[in-house]
Design goal:
Length: 98
Amino acid sequence: QEDVPPLFAPAGGGGGGGHDGGFELAEDATYGGAVAVWQAEVRRGRENCAARGLDDTSPFMGGEVTLRWIYVHMIGEYARHCGHADLIRERIDGRTGV
């Protein structure tokens, strides 16, 4: 229930409706910077969840979800993005499978 701004605002401060949908890469972006932001977000998430049980609920998009649902959703999101990265890697080196 925190009211926080997005980590990365779309170019021009709009609603992310541009070609890259708000995922434009800043000119000063670095791998190290991205990892640092990700690690800080993971730390914050762990702090927020430490005192909660899996069946505790929070408001989400007009409804209520459990912490368990959030964890399962995040696992699915990570898996999907890892799959995207694997498809890109396959196109680069031609290898498939494990």
